[in-house]
Design goal:
- It is a single chain.
- It contains 22 helices and 10 strands.
- It is an alpha/beta fold and about 625 residues long.
- Helices cover about 60% and strands about 10% of the residues.
- α2 crosses α6, α3 packs antiparallel against α6 and α6 runs antiparallel to α10.
Length: about 625
């Protein structure tokens, strides 16, 4: 394998193969059945050759009886063993893929999400979907065929050695050429084609997802045709890569056929003198000549196996990168399921106090968006962040929640750097409701249970009423069992936001971060909801049986909003903007204080608030 793969690919493939949880017994069964299939094919060719040659000598019919039955037996056995081998190998692969996908989700759920947050959604789907399947295909399409071909090739050469050692050696050499040189020729060029195809598939997934989810907005911006053309160009790149790979596969097939032909010719050239010398019988010569034809049936699978090896290795590298490296995988695999049960005592040792000091934010690998941010959120705190669109407010929330690492400064939860805490530890104390948080294609109740799996019907009803969805619930066709559709397609944008807020209120976490909770609502309703979130939450939190002992009757709220009218209940309003006169693009907290203080001291803030009143 070292010949075919780089060190990084080999290590990644080894790590992800461990995550498949393969059962040695099942793998051995698949190998045995694969060997039985190929041995039946070779035996069928050998016995048929012997039967034809011996029958030409017109012996008594009874002398051919065993061979005749053997031909039927090997013919039936070949098909039967192939069927059983397919069942066994696909059982290994499918169960392994299920285990791998489970392990991927387990490790992601317990690790920092900064790596995931830095990827495009289409790329994440590709890594947790197609790449996981590709690692599973490695077992069926690469590993098992290689083992089977190697084992049967050795047995075939051994069988021929009993008849003629020179023929056995030349056949073995030709098998090596077909089984090693052919795949090597394929794999060197297939690597380039594979890398191009993988990049194209990633781009195709991301672009297609963007088109499906944002078609209306793209059409309004005049970008729809450009995105469609981009998808078409990407598809053309994929087809070109596939054509290139097909040409390489044909080269490998040609090498395999040349090697097989050479083995047959060598058997004839070496066998005829041996027959003349009396060392080999004429019937045995037929076996020596025709058996290699079936022996090369296994090597024909090695070129596709080599291409699959490259494909699976590349997929394994991307999975390892997604999970944070081999150490993260080893640590995740070393945990038993019961180890992932929340340890309330250890979590309660972390004080629910979120502090940001001289914080600089931005996406990994990108520029600093905002800097110099200092704030503290604890149970009972009511903070609001306002500022122009695109200034970095949502990025700030992701950083405070530990989903993005700080570019400078620090964000701590109870004195612990939050980006290094596991998601289980962080989510015990802090919950984030993003503007584009997902609504699952299931019932209202199950969507609320995303935040806490034990929410009862009564609790769910109470949470929906607090979020302003009480009247909607009364008219919903199936009540709490009403299916919301993927992404909340069966409800309006405002109703979707309220469902997400009810989910956030259902979380036992004492700190709550909200991104534009009043989005898609009319101004009056939005102001009421924002005001309720800032001034309420106390009853919602105290109703949670899992609430921590730290100020368990209160909840800390930090929300991002574009409206100022409802911020009177906030302890502090932070205005995020670029400092006038500065040449840089970084934003800063340019003003902070209570809503009343900012109205009295900031003309810009007071003007923005007055404009909202005019629009009501």
């Amino acid at each position: 394998m070292n010949i075919f793969l780089s060190t990084q690919e080999r290590r990644a493939l080894t790590a992800t193969t461990k995550m498949l949880g393969l059962r040695p017994g099942k793998v051995a069964l698949a190998v045995v059945l694969g060997c039985a299939t190929l041995i039946s094919a070779i035996s069928l060719a050998a016995v048929s050759a012997w039967l034809i040659a011996r029958a030409s000598q017109m012996p008594p019919v009874l002398a051919l009886g065993v061979a005749t039955v053997s031909v039927r037996m090997f013919g039936i056995g070949r098909a039967l063993f192939r069927y059983l081998q397919r069942l066994a190998s696909h059982f290994v692969a499918l169960s392994g893929v299920a285990t791998l996908r489970l392990n991927v989700y387990r490790i992601l759920a317990s690790s920092s999400t900064s790596k995931v947050a830095s990827l495009r959604r289409g790329d994440i789907l590709a890594r947790t979907g197609e790449d996981v399947d590709a690692v599973g295909d490695y077992v069926v399409k690469s590993l098992l065929p290689t083992i089977v071909t190697g084992v049967v090739g050795i047995l075939t050469v051994g069988l021929l050695a009993f008849l003629s050692l020179p023929v056995a050696l030349t056949t073995g050499a030709c098998l090596i050429v077909a089984g090693v040189v052919g795949p090597l020729v394929t794999i060197r060029s297939a690597r380039i084609a594979e890398q191009a195809a993988q990049q194209a598939y990633t781009e195709l997934g991301a672009s297609s997802l963007a088109l499906l989810e944002n078609a209306t907005e793209l059409a309004n911006l005049g970008r729809l045709d450009a995105l469609r053309q981009e998808i078409t160009n990407t598809e053309d790149d994929i087809i070109a890569a596939q054509d290139h790979a097909a040409k390489l596969a044909s080269i490998a097939a040609a090498i395999d056929n040349i090697a097989m032909t050479a083995a047959v010719i060598a058997a004839i050239l070496l066998g005829i003198p041996a027959v003349t010398a009396g060392d080999v019988s004429a019937v045995a010569l037929a076996v020596l000549v025709l058996t290699p034809l079936a022996a090369f049936e296994g090597t024909q699978q090695l070129a596709p196996a080599a291409v699959q090896l490259v494909h699976s290795a590349g997929a394994a590298v991307r999975i390892v990168e997604l999970l944070g490296g081999e150490d993260a995988i080893e640590g995740g695999l070393g945990k038993k399921l019961e180890d992932e049960t929340p340890d309330t005592a250890s979590f309660d040792d972390i004080a629910p106090v979120l502090e940001a000091k001289d914080l600089a934010i931005g996406w990994p690998g990108g520029p600093v968006i905002a800097s110099g941010i200092t704030l503290t959120l604890k149970p009972g705190s009511r903070l609001a962040i306002v500022g122009p669109s695109g200034i970095g407010k949502s990025t700030l929330l992701f950083t405070l929640a530990g989903m993005l690492p700080p570019l400078a400064g620090s964000v701590t939860l109870g004195g612990h750097e939050i980006s290094k805490l596991s998601r289980l530890e962080a989510s015990r104390h802090i919950t984030l409701t993003a503007e584009d948080a997902h609504i699952f294609s299931t019932s209202v109740l199950e969507n609320l249970r995303v935040s806490k799996g034990t929410i009862s019907d009564e609790e769910a009803t109470s949470l929906l009423e607090q979020a302003g969805m009480g009247q909607w619930l009364e008219t919903a066709p199936l009540g709490l069992s009403t299916n919301l559709g993927s992404g909340g397609t069966t409800i309006s944008g405002g109703e979707r936001r309220r469902i997400l807020l009810a989910r956030a209120l259902g979380s036992p976490a004492p700190l709550m971060l909200l991104d534009e909770p009043g989005e898609h609502l009319d101004s009056v309703t939005s102001d009421k909801l924002v005001g309720d979130l800032l001034s309420a939450g106390k009853a919602a939190h105290s109703a949670q049986p899992d609430a921590t002992e730290h100020d368990e009757d209160e909840r800390g709220v930090l929300l991002v909003t574009h409206r100022l009218s409802a911020l009177g209940a906030a302890d502090e309003v932070l205005v995020l903007d670029r400092v006038p006169g500065e040449t840089g693009t970084e934003a800063h907290i340019v003003q902070r204080g209570t809503h009343a203080h900012l109205l009295a001291t900031s003309p810009d803030y007071a003007w923005a608030a007055s404009q909202e009143e005019l629009l009501v």
